[in-house]
Design goal:
It contains 6 helices and no strands. The chain has 132 residues and is mostly helical. The protein has a single domain, classed as Serine Threonine Protein Phosphatase 5, Tetratricopeptide repeat, CATH 1.25.40. It is elongated and about 80 Å long.
Length: 132
């Protein structure tokens, strides 16, 4: 009798456990910092850029920028914002309208104190030479 109760209890536990795990994963996913995902997309974009896979890089940078609109990933070793990198990748494959749009966006959203002079200068020069 005791063994039967233990077996039933174990069976109930095995049915409930997966449901509990799924619910726990949902709660944890909702509480995660979107900066973690943005950082990973940005990192993957940088890897794609290093391989000259500009299409993949653009997709990754756009995913990063969509997750954290103003790109305030605090305490991360990021040198390039995904918006700037999207523009630069578009520049590399000569998608001039897309590059123009993203360089304008970069200059509009980046706080002046966080923009490296060379990036801002590059964006302004590109806009001057290629964009109306």
């Amino acid at each position: 009798m005791v063994r039967s109760v233990r077996v039933k209890s174990f069976c109930i536990f095995m049915v409930i456990l997966p449901v509990f795990v799924v619910q726990l994963q949902r709660v944890m996913a909702q509480s995660e910092d979107p900066g973690d995902d943005a950082y990973e997309h940005n990192r993957q974009g940088m890897i794609a850029m290093s391989k000259a896979d500009f299409e993949e890089a653009i997709a990754e940078f756009q995913s990063a920028a969509a997750l954290v609109k103003d790109y305030q990933i605090i305490g991360r070793p990021l040198v390039y914002t995904p918006v700037f990198m999207t523009a630069w990748a578009n520049e590399k494959i000569e998608r001039i309208p897309d590059a123009c749009r993203e360089f304008k966006r970069f200059l509009a959203i980046a706080p002046p104190e966080s923009v490296e002079k060379t990036k801002a200068d590059h964006a302004r020069e590109y806009l001057k030479q290629h964009c109306s």
